[in-house]
Amino acid sequence: MLKRVYGSVDHFPGQDSPYVPYASPEPVAHLSQHKLLPILLERAEASPRTASIWFGTQVTAIRDRGSEVAVTVEHASARSERHKRTIVCSHLVAADGANSRVRDWLELPMEGDACLQNLINIHFFSKDLAQQLSKRPAMLYFCFNRATVAVIVAHSLADGEFVAQVPFFPPLQDLGDFSKTAAADIVRAAAGSDVEVEVCSVRRWAMSAQVASRFHKGRVFLAGDAAHRFPPAGGFGMNTGIQDAHNLAWKLAAVHTGAASEELLETYGGERRPVAEANTLLSVSNYEDALRVPRALGLDPRAANLASAVISPLRSVVPRGVASSALEAVLSLGRAAADASIPLLGDLKEKALERLFAEDQTLRLQFPAEDLGFSYRLDRSMASSKEAGAKPGRHLRGGYVPSTEPGARLPHCELQPIGAGVPVVASRPEWIFANAIREAAQEADAGGQNLEPSGGGATLSTIDVVAACGLRPLLIIGPGHMAQRWASLALSIHRLGYPVQVLQILDRPGGAASGELPSHTAVARAVDVSSTWAASRGVSENGAVLVRPDGHVAWRWNALGPAEGADLPRRLAAMFGRVAHMQPGAP
């Protein structure tokens, strides 16, 4: 890390900021799980809807009774006494990790490769190493030398916090071989310097590429690593898990508040599992890309694993230490052969590395198309003829193209509200802006952003508006002459029990649009200050886009006629797993 550098890859070419304005109001961030969890906990504890959060508690049994789930939990008291109790709930979400016990109890098998590679994770702090790396900052450092092979993840150079990932070969090696002292020596060998190291933890894990056969059974749902296990290449594990929660949360809330039928929950696995399958394939592909560099140096993990498999049977005839020493001798020969400083041979290896870096054939870290461009497949009867998005076997290696294709994530567009500064009245549509601006301002304060555009006035994203609507679907209409008819249709549907919030996005303020609605109508209005909505909305100025509470597009229409007037309530009913019993037609 601190000696010879064979190459580096800039994963943000041409960017001087972590923000990608066309894609999201939020910046790209490297946020490890142990940093995210305290943030989630703080928000959960601050929420008035949070019931209780228990630590030191584990689930020991579950029983799905058909109409409810009985969960037996065991927790420790202040005196380390174990206490059991049974909790009865309507639904259970199991986010209990890669080795989920709930998944095993449900007998939901994992499909795919259970072990691509065994690894040791060394979590450590080193201000000394961080200071010396400040001249060549990076998120990932791939270290290959005669002493060790390791990938060092820099979680925070400012804090000097790192994680080292080291190949591990059981049964010839076990966790006991990696004491904190031995782990610190590995870190120093990777650094190439006698830096000060404080090892916090050492643990073993198996890199998998698996997806659960089903994401729910009865009233129990799997989410996160309990539902899918990926190689870490690309950061898809936590991102996909967060997407699971995002998809399931609004559906559970809608069912529990009576806004939706239980049938809505049946869509969870159908929507999320194909995305998880696609991300599994992409993670494996990205992992293989990461291996191009060590292979160019002459280090092939397959050869090391083969050596371990060949030597392992010797344990039955020779002491374990002898077999382990034989493995270490083979690994040492491989590391020595990979030394790019060897004359002539080293030159060839350096040229091979230069070619890999120049042709972008190594590990990628940014995946906007996969992170934001995946699309849910709607019910077949409601599906678009053009199914976009992440599908099993398809890698979206291009850039993210914002789209309102049904099933896609609503494109980000910067809006300036009209009339949001007036006193908030519950019956007025401006409440969605008041809520959205308040939350956006809180996020901006935390991230040091500025919500004031050059033209003055607070701005927010279309994504913020969706979040502020809660469980209400959002109907986005344009500046065309049919805007009033769309608003009237939404109001008539609202009166019949299908509440929908209407947002009119204008190209410019001041009545220039033929269909700009007056401020007294039950429609929130905003100006597209980024001039991007017209290009990404996918419909004419007389059309409309219907958005689910999770920000994914439910449907879109290019204009409003009798057929569209009858279709809107049908789409709203389908969104909540219900059947539409009225056909109000277009006003």
Automatic annotation (TrEMBL):
Keyword DNA-binding: no
Signal peptide (from-to): none
Pfam family, one: Rng_hyd_C
GO MF term (any one): FAD binding
Domain of life: Eukaryota
Membrane-spanning intervals of the chain: none
Domain FAD-binding span(s) in chain numbering: 23-280
Any single GO CC term annotated in Swiss-Prot or TrEMBL for this entry: mitochondrion
GO biological process, one term: ubiquinone biosynthetic process
Keywords: FAD, Flavoprotein
Designated name of the protein: Polyketide hydroxylase-like
Source organism per UniProt: Tetraselmis sp. GSL018
Source species taxonomy: Eukaryota, Viridiplantae, Chlorophyta, core chlorophytes, Chlorodendrophyceae
